[in-house]
């Protein structure tokens, strides 16, 4: 049987943050679960976890949403990975990215955290930055708005229209990483949209 993959959506807990830009990673993991009728259950690693399959027969997917705040996501991610015996290179972290325009995805494995405190904490807790990231572009705030306020705001009206497509594309990208590898997913999802 193929080894399991851990797919994590970063975000903040509770209804106050549910629809904010910072929680787009959790929205994508919710989409992956919805496609499979998978249900999240509370896990001892301070996360909500759903066990499912990419397709009948495998590979196994462990979908996780930390119950901690974004900046301390590492403990729950490392705890779930350890519980299921999943190595860091089979961990996919889905998160918002200020430096990528809205409605754009970028995928990579390893490298720096780009100032993203959630990613920084996951790398620290896993003792390596060598995990896959699906970076969902939210763009920079307009004018002089503080980036910290921007990420904690809900998506704007025009963004909300395109958000379901962006979430579906990010879910597709995570599935493709598992199914065909990172390079194939990059080639598909880094191409300009037509």
UniProtKB/TrEMBL annotation:
The record marks 12 as: Discriminates between blocked and unblocked aminoacyl-tRNA. Belongs to the PTH family. The record marks 96 as: Stabilizes the basic form of H active site to accept a proton. Keywords: Cytoplasm, Hydrolase, RNA-binding, tRNA-binding. The keyword Cytoplasm applies. It is found in: Cytoplasm. Catalyzes the release of premature peptidyl moieties from peptidyl-tRNA molecules trapped in stalled 50S ribosomal subunits, and thus maintains levels of free tRNAs and 50S ribosomes. The active site is at residue 22. It catalyses: an N-acyl-L-alpha-aminoacyl-tRNA + H2O = an N-acyl-L-amino acid + a tRNA + H(+). GO terms for molecular function: peptidyl-tRNA hydrolase activity. Its EC number is 3.1.1.29. The keyword Transmembrane does not apply. TRNA binds at residues 17, 69, 71, 117. It is an enzyme of class 3 (hydrolase). InterPro entries: Pept_tRNA_hydro (IPR001328), Pept_tRNA_hydro_CS (IPR018171), Pept_tRNA_hydro_sf (IPR036416). Monomer. This is Peptidyl-tRNA hydrolase.
């Amino acid at each position: 049987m193929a080894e399991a993959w851990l797919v994590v959506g970063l975000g903040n807990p509770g209804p106050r943050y549910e629809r904010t830009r910072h929680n787009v990673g959790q929205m994508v993991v919710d989409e992956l679960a919805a496609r499979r009728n998978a249900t999240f259950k509370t896990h001892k690693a301070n996360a909500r976890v759903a066990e499912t399959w990419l397709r009948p027969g495998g590979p196994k997917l462990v979908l996780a949403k930390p119950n901690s705040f974004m900046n301390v996501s590492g403990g729950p991610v490392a705890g779930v990975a350890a519980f299921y015996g999943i190595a860091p290179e089979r961990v996919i972290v889905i998160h918002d990215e200020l430096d990528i325009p809205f409605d754009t995805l970028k995928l990579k494995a390893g490298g720096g955290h780009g100032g993203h405190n959630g990613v920084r904490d996951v790398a620290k807790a896993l003792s390596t930055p060598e995990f896959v990231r699906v970076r969902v572009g939210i763009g920079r705030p307009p004018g002089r708005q503080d980036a910290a306020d921007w990420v904690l705001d809900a998506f704007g009206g025009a963004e909300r229209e395109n958000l379901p497509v962006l979430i579906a594309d990010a879910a597709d990208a995570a599935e493709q990483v598992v199914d065909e590898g990172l390079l194939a997913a990059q080639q598909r999802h880094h191409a300009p949209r037509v």
